[in-house]
Design brief:
This protein has 306 residues and is mainly alpha-helical. It has helices spanning 2-51, 68-74, 77-108, 115-127, 130-141, 147-154, 169-195, 198-206, 211-222, 224-238, 243-248, 260-269, 274-303; strands at 54-56, 62-64. It folds into two domains: 2-51; 68-303, MetI-like (MetI-like fold), CATH 1.10.3720.10. The chain contains 13 helices and two strands, in the order αββαααααααααααα.
């Protein structure tokens, strides 16, 4: 009996110590990533929030002004213009990019000749540098001798300043971003399509369901986790466009193509107002954080089927 009692005590203590050591190892493995995340993500966010409550004088001293920067922001017409432009830009790029990516993925997922070439052609715009993409489309939109105006000239139509007209500049940017991003999102849909169990579609086909019914009732619902992931990435991308604007429009004409992140860049590096740029950055962080909370707190629970 004493031997059994000692044995039982050792057996109960060993799993606890083993579990403790596993927990320590897990935290040690996570420590480098946690340090980098805190140093390059969390600390900059907190520093930006703090800086938004100060202004920097010419002598380098910081003066606490409270919510004065936020009051100035709410009275800034360019901020509201950039925010509205960004909303329209997101509405123009996100749904169209997702729909086009899904169509391309369904197409190249079929057994057909030239499938590898089509996948490469659809994905090629994604690997091009942003500056190169901006210059390519700048040639398309150049008045008189650009590709679009050359095509218009075949029908006797005059040239058009596509990027210099407030009515067309946002549409031009939307088309360019869709062209670049749709191939990237296609890869996620293609990987998801290849993971779907074929038994469900085969059973539906045996029951007499058509292709559209199979897609609407089986394929697309099973692709909803991928669609949510792609949508979140597309929305984030729509709020961080800077490179193309620097090359193509610089926010013009008359701020018609100014987006929120480009306005932050302009305030920080052109006007040298880091405090107001920090204030605008806080607003951008709030928008993106709200979208992330909606995604992880609400939508994730309603689209996963495990």
């Amino acid at each position: 009996m004493p031997y059994q009692t000692a044995t039982s005590q050792v057996s109960t203590r060993a799993p606890k110590s083993h579990a403790w050591w596993n927990a320590v190892n897990a935290w040690l493995l996570l420590l480098p990533a946690a340090v980098l995340l805190a140093a390059f993500t969390h600390y900059p966010i907190l520093a930006t929030i703090k800086h938004s409550f100060f202004i920097t004088k010419r002598n380098g001293a910081q003066l606490f002004v409270g919510f004065d920067n936020y009051q100035a922001m709410f009275q800034d017409p360019i901020f509201w213009k950039a925010l509205v432009n960004n909303i329209w830009f997101a509405l123009g790029t996100v749904p169209t990019s997702i729909a086009l990516a899904l169509l391309m993925a369904l197409w190249v997922n079929r057994n057909m000749r030239g499938r590898g070439f089509l996948r490469l052609a659809f994905f090629t715009p994604t690997v091009l540098p942003m500056i190169a993409v901006a210059n390519i489309w700048l040639f398309f939109y150049t008045p008189d001798y650009g590709l679009l105006d050359q095509l218009r000239g075949l029908f006797g139509l005059p040239g058009w300043n596509w990027l210099g007209d407030p009515r067309t500049v946002m549409g031009c940017l939307i088309v360019m971003v869709i062209w670049k991003e749709a191939g990237f999102f296609m890869i996620f849909y293609l990987a998801a399509l290849q993971q779907l169990p074929p038994d469900l579609e085969e059973a539906a086909a045996v029951e007499g369901a058509g292709r559209w019914t199979i897609f609407r009732r089986i394929t697309f619902p099973l692709l909803m986790p991928t669609t949510l992931f792609v949508a979140i990435n597309a929305v984030i991308n729509s709020f961080k466009l800077v490179d193309h604007l620097v090359i193509m429009t610089k926010g013009g004409p008359s701020n018609a193509s100014t987006l929120l992140l480009y306005y932050i860049y302009e305030v920080a590096f052109t006007f040298q107002d880091s405090a107001y740029a920090a204030t605008l950055t806080v607003v951008l962080l709030v928008i993106l954080s709200t979208l992330a909370l909606v995604k992880f707190g609400y939508l994730d629970r309603r689209i996963h089927y495990q």
